[in-house]
Amino acid sequence: MSLRATLAVLAAAVLSAACGSRPPAPQWQLNARGAIERYQQAFLAGSTRAADAEFARARAELAATGQPALVARAELNRCALQVASLAFGPCPGFDALRADAAPAERAYAAYLAGEPADTGLLPPQHRAVAGGATGAAALRSIEDPLARLVAAGVLVRSGRADPQVLELAADTASAQGWRRALLAWLGAQAQRAEQAGDPAQAQRLRRRMALAAGEL
């Protein structure tokens, strides 16, 4: 399940409680939802210390329920944000809880790793890429910007990204003001430009990176 889906589940619980016909939502749901939202924004903005603190807070609230599946989902969403920012690596937090994760979460973990996954268990916006689609056309149909960046990261990780994928991902991160993700995608573009023998383009991209990083 994606981070947006996780937030939707928590929000639904809060809204149903607000109707007055049910008991108030447990405090952990409110706390976890707020912490996850703040974690996402801090991570994508490049505020590592704030992001780590908010994720720890969210994880503690979810762990207090004694439900491994909830914590596994949060850990998996953490890895999805890393993929969206081209920070590839293992997903140890999820792996430690994999045995108690639902099949949909295990399929999503495989997808994030660039491995074959059961497309029927994935969120609809990721099924085309998981099914083998390549190129920017596969991303333009994904309306949610974070999901689009995650899918773009999967394309890069699985060796299926072309220059248009990198450009679209950079434009998506730029439009949202997500500094960490933008720097990662601009860096990937600059590297490809250098490899293609286009130093002028590489320099232009690195100037954009310097601007985004506050160095200009």
UniProtKB/TrEMBL annotation:
<protein>
    <recommendedName>
        <fullName>Lipoprotein</fullName>
    </recommendedName>
</protein>
<keyword id="KW-0732">Signal</keyword>
<feature type="signal peptide">
    <location>
        <begin position="1"/>
        <end position="17"/>
    </location>
</feature>
